[in-house]
Description:
The chain is of the alpha/beta class. The protein is 27% helix and 22% strand. Adenosine-5'-triphosphate (ATP) is lined by residues 20, 22-23, 27, 45, 47-53, 68.
Amino acid sequence: MTRPNARGARVELSGWGWKHSGRDTHALRGVDLTVEPGERVLLLGASGAGKSTLLHSLAGLTGEDGAISGEHEGSLLVDGAPADRGRGGVGLVSQDPETQLVMARAGDDVAFGLENLGVDPEDIWPRVERSLTEVGFPYGLRHSTGALSGGEKQRLVIAGALAMRPRLLLLDEPTANLDPAGAVLVRDLLSRLLAETEATLVLVEHRVADVVDLVDRVVVVEPGGGVIADGAPARVFAEHGRSLADQGVWIPGNEPVPELTPAPGGVPLVETVGVSARTPFQVGVRAAPGGRCSTT
Ligand SMILES: Nc1ncnc2c1ncn2[C@@H]1O[C@H](COP(=O)(O)OP(=O)(O)OP(=O)(O)O)[C@@H](O)[C@H]1O
Ligand SMILES: [Mg+2]
């Protein structure tokens, strides 16, 4: 798949910070980070460390007219311009496809983003159809988005992002809300698509082993702070694997083991008082063939 504008975008953050409206503390602060065109970065950090906030900011959603309000400091540039001024080149896929599908029909949903971008109307439908084919969407343009499984919805969201021909692809736990089969479907799709595009990638994913082959760099951020580790995956895991695992990140070879410690005396999972169950039928006897009786 060769795309026009396929060359990746350059991302540059300098002393960047963001404080959400209504919060006393920064989600992130003092972030210094440069991602070169075409680089593939896995962004890690504890829950609440600000990974989604960073992705949303890269997508331009925290700009002056953006959907997320708050205060920024420092600079965040995509190809040298503030992220909210160059939206066309950025594709964001969030962890919950439900929140990203806006239209009732599959084709309209992909077309919506292109219309917003001001793409020439004649080009919109060919681009929609091509993107749906690329993600292996199994239904027609008029298929109801409400009738899709989670994995199918996420494939549709990815088609919407691809249709925009992004030079910066932002994937925020794209398989987190999917059942195992849906997750495999979407991961396979992503690895195929990433092999065919030169877009810069910033990916957030807790299950590191599933995606580590797709990236060439790992960046770790800390809550309320900036970048605390940055480098080749093997080196970052060797140096920070233990603390990342302690923060709930599933590092290869250090995946969490469920702890089932019996509580003293046992803890009841279900308690019932005055509960009964009824059969809708009357219990009785009937004559079975041969004259014997059986209970019903
Ligand atoms: N819209 C918002 N308004 C106010 N605070 C927010 C908003 N979105 C996120 N936050 C806060 O900003 C901080 C960073 O949140 P963010 O969702 O970016 O973390 P994360 O690293 O993506 O976490 P997770 O791994 O759980 O997805 C958290 O303290 C969170 O509560
Ligand atoms: Mg998040």
